[in-house]
Each structure stands twice: as C-alpha cells, then as structure tokens.
Amino acid sequence: MSAIILDGSMVHYEALGRGRPIIFLHGWVGSWRYWINAMQVASTSFRAYAIDLFGFGDSTRDPLRYSLDQQAELINRFLEEMGIGKVAIVGHDLGALVGFAFLKKWHGSVDRMMAINCPVEYDALNARMKTATMNELIDWLSSKTPEATSALSDASKVDPKAVTASIDSLQADNLFPNVRNLGVPCLFVYGSNTPALTVPSQEKADTLPQHMHQINLDGLGHFPMLDNPPQFNRLLTDFLALDSGISPRELQLKEEWKRRVR
Q: What is the residue range of 33's domain?
C-alpha cells in the first residue's frame, strides 16, 4: 500500500507504469480497487495513479474534507506533492464531479478528462442515491459477479457522511456550467442501463461544446469498467491515444461507439 500525508491527513494511492500521468478517481461505491484492470491496461503507455478520496478506502475520514471542493483540493495537493504535471483525469460518478471541481480551479493542469456516469446536475441523480445505505447501493448498482464483488470489496469502508456531503455539494453548486467552456477535451461515457441517474438525452448531448462528446455503452450499467472491461478499456485506450487538445469527437469510432444516445 502506498500513502502520502497531505496537510496532516493520510491519502492512500496506488500507481502503475511509466509515461504521461493519469489520475483515476472512484465513485460513491467502492474505492481505487475497481480501477485495477483499467490501470493495468493504461500502464502499458502511461503512469496510472488511483487515489482513495477522503472518507473512502484507506484514506483519512474527516467530515471537514468531504465537499467536492475539498476533495478537489486533495487532488491539487497530491499533484503538487508528487511533482506531477499536466494530467488526464478518469472519474466515475463522484470521481467525475471531483474532477470537474478540480477543473474549475486548475483547468490548466488537465490535459483531458473522461467522465463516466456523471450526473451533470443534481436533479439527474436518482433519489435512491441520496438515501440508500452502502449495502443497498452495492446490491442495486453492481452486477454481483464474483469479479464485481471483489472489485467493490472496499465499499464497507466508505463513510456515509462523505457520500452525503458530496451530493449536498452538487446540489449547492452545479459545476458543469463553470467548466463546459474551459476548452479541456472531455468525453462523457454512460452505461445505458445505469439506474443511478438519468442519462442525458441526445438533445442535451447535441448542445455540448465542440471539445466535449457523449458516448453511451448499450447494455452496460453503472460500472462499465466492471460490466465489460474489454469494451471499456478499448474506449479508454482510444481516448488516451488522441493528441493533446484534440476533441473526443475526432475518435475513430468503432461500431460499438457509433450508437447514438437514446
């Protein structure tokens, strides 16, 4: 286990590979652990980091650090302390929101971002996400395969206050209008069958600026990186292979990426 002390609090992380840096940010259910497969794929060409946010996995529990802005500060301090320059961010639900909070303040430090099953507004979240226990969320959101169960095994470590505080932050500050015009290439990826949120319609997807793009993965749920790792990893690899500054709309789309938003 690797860890770093930031302003008196422990932050757990894992790292693989060499090359340009990527930060993987987990969501409300689980920890860094469900990124292992994606990290292994990315690490053949990149230096992949996965961080446990405050209140998750083996990082410090501190309710004063659970807002989206404070979690974004964690990312900023981590990059500073580790001497990491411009990064790609891959974030899943909460992790994507933290990525956008980071983007809002330090967009010059982000080369590109992949936002997976991210609620771009508070009302898009299913009400159950705001009230269910962690065990209920696991039962509801995961595919229950042995692989998924193992990947989400750290869910029991989640501080429920961290979930509540971050959702309250989203309600108080809709991040997306603050970041959509910053020019950082962003690919939104949704599992078409996720029950956690309302997937943005094609009409909404068509209003995204030129440097942003939305792809739906048909038949996948809330954890596309666990539901179909080969498909998810192909998309991740193609996105990371784009030249810096290039819009994800320029992806040479494989057949599975061509299906339009429903």
A: 2-257
